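Late entry, evening session. Most of the bench is empty. Finally got around to the prediction I had been postponing all week. Sequence below, unchanged from the version circulated by S.P.
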Amino acid sequence: MKRNAASRIVINIAVIMVLTAILICGITNSGILGNSIFNIGNFINMGNTADYSTEPIKLPPDKINSVEINWISGEINICQSNDEYFRAEDDYSGNKEKLMLCWKLEEKTLKIAFGKSSKFGFWSNHKDKKLNVYIPEAALSEIEDLEIDTVSSDINIDFRENELSIKELEIDTTSGNTIITGVSALSVNIDSVSGATSYNGKAEKISVDSVSGDTELSFDTLPLKGSFDSISGAVNLSIFGEASFTADFSSVSGKFKCDFPTTNYGDKYICGEGNSDLSFESVSGDVIINQK
């Protein structure tokens, strides 16, 4: 009987460990064998990149309509190419394959990873690397999706001269700062824990979630729908010209400040005809709407 009881205890512990692992993977939006970054202490899971190439990336633009970047740490810079090719490079000069930028073209999705991993995706002892991605002018209106998943990289997406027009922009970061300029997207989703976010461009729908990082937004025309959640980070929204929005503001101690005349109904602020639907939730972070 004691042996059976001990066996049941071992089985129950094993089941709890498996369920806990599944829960953790669900919370982090990544499976053990998935393609997104999964971080436990110094051990990183970037998905299985064992079959990725370490050859230089130099591809014609008609081969790519989607880009996925999995990067651990170090700057990520994305800008326009000065030639007709889609290129990407990092600043690693060694010969360890494990630390080399690697990539895979899956149908028309270019997947770029920090380095070659084991078949289960786990490895550790990484160093910061700078990643530069160059998109040719011919592809600025052809790229449909851009997805970046990183732990602590600062992200700089700069298309202030020629606009990058895409369907969906998705960024998931822990502590890196994100600066986006000159992007027009149908949908923007940015998740950050402590990194600051700056977005100066166009969007039909935008969502920014942050724990403590501040959010800076600048629009000529407000998105039709915007959702901004924060614990302690402030949200500063700058609007050029006239504005028309309905803002729902929910906060424990944060304050709502607005340069535009509004009509207040409890937690709801209506400006003009109330066309854009904006939602702000925070614990202590302020919301400031500026007229530029």
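Two things to note before I forget:
The first strand starts at residue 38 and ends at 40.
The chain is about 10% helix and 45% strand.
Will write this up properly tomorrow.
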